[in-house]
Batch of 2 targets.
Target 1
Amino acid sequence: MTAVIDDERLDAAFTALADPTRRAIVARLARGDATVTELAAPFAMSMPGISKHLRVLERSGLVTRSRHAQFRPCHLEREPLDEALGWIEEARRVWRERFDKLDAHLRELQRTDHTDRTTTTTDHADQKEATE
Amino acid sequence: MTAVIDDERLDAAFTALADPTRRAIVARLARGDATVTELAAPFAMSMPGISKHLRVLERSGLVTRSRHAQFRPCHLEREPLDEALGWIEEARRVWRERFDKLDAHLRELQRTDHTDRTTTTTDHADQKEATE
DNA sequence: AGGTTAAATAACCAAGTGGTTTAGTAAACG
DNA sequence: CGTTTACTAAACCACTTGGTTATTTAACCT
């Protein structure tokens, strides 16, 4: 239904996580909110550099910023993390389901020697699967 | 120890997942191996375009390719998926742990009105947490 | 008012991405 | 053998990314 929107959200989340600096920032924020200078401290990078990374994180919804005097404390949001996690889990679920099904099928073949090809789908693809 | 290498692997995995076409390919491969033309079919994109995406997926270790005559059947590997999942899970674990700890702390404060600030860490950051 | 601190913006750069078309390779097929 | 099939490689394009320095904004503190 909202496939395109979901796509955009996932794009942003995975893009945000695809950089070691940003992952380190996320990991740091998981332990508690922090200001931009606090976040920048561990890195050999200029402040605007960190600022740019934070904008990417903010655009993905992973990080939100509020204002407190001249500070802009950063806060890690949970939902985008959950969405990314959910996508991977679903892909893995499908993968494992197929694997289990194949495994059961092979076991069945071994028990009663039917040698039927009615359950195959993509021809040579399945042929490859049977050899692994 | 192998932090940099892990970084590179995670970079590649998240980068690979940060594109809707590549995610669709991964989702398709979760259901079973497929050739490049089979993978390209659902998309309004030239074959070399798909080929490039597959190279990104291959570089990340998410996809491996074997040879079968002139076909190059693609196969989804589980490990990089697990690594990406593991990283997110760990971040979320830390996030929730802190949340639970804060929650317990607030409950404790409410029970016995100590009003002690000895357990705070990053000053205004925690102050912000208390207001959410 | 003037100075300091926190952070964002602007302008710039090299390198990478995502797509194309055109051309090439390698194996099967008739 | 030549042709088709499946795919990769090369060259090119507009656009984005990740980084820099230099400049501004905004709020606080004398």
Target 2
Amino acid sequence: MALARKKGPSAKLRSAAFKRVRADHQVELAEDYVELIADLIDERAEARGTDIAMRLGVANATVVKALKRLQEQGLITQEPYRAIFLTGDGWKMADNGRRKHRIVEGFLLALGVNSATARIDAEGIEHHVSAETLKAMARFLARNGG
Amino acid sequence: MALARKKGPSAKLRSAAFKRVRADHQVELAEDYVELIADLIDERAEARGTDIAMRLGVANATVVKALKRLQEQGLITQEPYRAIFLTGDGWKMADNGRRKHRIVEGFLLALGVNSATARIDAEGIEHHVSAETLKAMARFLARNGG
DNA sequence: ATAGAAGTTTAGCACTAGCTAAACATTAGT
DNA sequence: ACTAATGTTTAGCTAGTGCTAAACTTCTAT
């Protein structure tokens, strides 16, 4: 190449955004699982593998593997052939996730998006909104009838 | 279990949302790459591996592997040791991605989020907004000074 | 009390996305 | 024209997330 090509002053800033997205993806699955487990416990006092598999739309074996990792991360407790429960950390993550989900979905509804779409999009978006954006959404929601 | 536990009427709808998110993730990487390649071509007439690696914040070898897949998908063309270019489909995807990115980022700014956060969050969110949500964001943007 | 249904786990496969280190090709500068 | 720097590719590793099929437990109903 002829001339020293400049990298652009913001090369690092740009890559930071992508890194953040990759990091988010790692937490995403854990958040989805604990939120779902929390919902199931609230609905029926316990969460079982097949229910999780069904709601997530994945195979049973996939759930087992994921739960093993969640246990290693200290988010859930489980014993063989028994229901799954959340640890303190698990509840913290679940509640935080559900709060985010509620705000994002409500926000999309307030924006005028129809409810089926709002639910689907919220599921994808919730893991990528920073605290600041969430606050902005909540503010908007408070003003525009949430 | 004692009584037939009901699955809940919306089990399928719920799992559909998660399936959608997983599907989005598969396209996400492709979109990020072609968008970035398009930006590089616009800026400096050609896109090279190291530039992509730097901006994405990943290793060179990772880029090589990803580009191979993109080529198989018919999104880019490349020859060994040469720069990378987009196919017609590649441009289509890149332009669509950049358009989404612009709307989402602009929307977050209009919402009152600061610019650094808006950029980072937009990067994560852009792949998860449906056409309908995007339209709603564009509408909001048009009204609230975009 | 026991057979069959339902649920759970294990084993083994495939693919994606990341990494480092080493080999190879191209380009620039003397 | 050659050497050194730069850029690119290959090889081989790790870990995550998905699958199916088979084995094993637990629960329910006769």
